[in-house]
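Section 3.1 - Work completed
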Amino acid sequence: MRILASCVPLLLLAASCGGGTGEGAAAPTVATQSTTPTQAAPVAAKFLIITGDTIRGQLGLNDVEKNIGPGGIHCTQQSRFPQGGRIVWRMKVIDPTTGKFLDDKGLASMTITYPDGKTDKLAYGGHGGTKDAPQDYLWAVGYTVPVDYPTGAFNYKIEAKSVEGATGTFEPFKVSAAMLTIVPKGLDYPRN
């Protein structure tokens, strides 16, 4: 009896929802069985998911950096870049409604904004492996740090827009130890 008494007010509240919007005055609808199958129109994403990392480019590598491990430190993920070095962003964009990565046919634009406000476009293509058999496809752009660039955090923002108008933004964490940081030339790895 208590359960029934406590559920009645909830049912009355649910029935009165929309009373001031004109929705309650609508004629009741009767469900009918359709004789022809229909499919719901696909839902277009309103936002995009951007993921990726930063790696060291070949420009500015010293002899030690070129010979560390197989292939040197080129294409290794990192967040510290020396003055005169090359930062490369490798990114992927995901359509959350399909779970698929978007290529150059699915995106209208993919740009990066640097700390000085200048922008650059990311290019889509194959990476790793060989020219005929890349290991992966992704969006990439590189930036050569000027030798006199100030040291410290390097804030940037990456934005993508799909051909259907969905947008996404990627910005690094605002935790100082995790931010992309420019360090003085020579402090990246010891030299011979």
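Second construct:
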Amino acid sequence: MDYKISGDNLQLVTIQLSPNEKVFAEAGSMVYMSGNINMEAKLRGGLLKGIGRKFMGETMFLTEFTTAGGEGMVSFGGTVPGTLQVLEIREGNHWMVQKDAFVVAEDSVEMSVGFQRKLGSIFFGGEGFILQKLSGKGKVFIHACGDFVEFDLQPDQILKVDTGSVVGWEDTVDFDIQRVKGIKTMFLGGEGLFLTTLKGPGKVIIQSMNIANLASALAPFMPHQNTSGSSNGIVGTLVKESLGR
């Protein structure tokens, strides 16, 4: 399977499919495709796995793409400004990724629900209780907000990361949450009360910005309605000026 990732911070991955190849993708991630591509919604893995995906906040059905009459082309993108990256999934080794990261994968890859193993990670980890587990063999394309930074941790090597900034990690990596030391640092340091701790060996991918921080930064500039029903912010100001109010 040939592919090309294009763009800077609004990236697309374009995949060239042969007649014997198939990929499956998150519903709504397809951007464009050639006329000989067939797509079909499938309940991959049966009803239980479909319910598991619904439990993650995703759609129960995934969309499969195949070609009819020669090679075909299909392109996919993420839902927020950010980066796409390919993961090579190997037999006997799987990846855990945040629940909105999956975009598209080869047919030989299996996607299922994964869970945080440690209590602290469940309640204080920005990645949440439910994750996506990627196993099998083949290429998977993931997406997240901002740019990606990849680390290949050595045995017992530790990386501490802002909670919510971890995109994914190999199953050999130990994932935990630790409280920030020092009362003054906890409340005045601006980095939150907890940090994600990743211990090698294994690969880790983090993102330069997460969607929660992006939403918080944009919130003061977004229009909103007050109790009288009028809209505040830039839009509200323009409306009031046009009405002479």
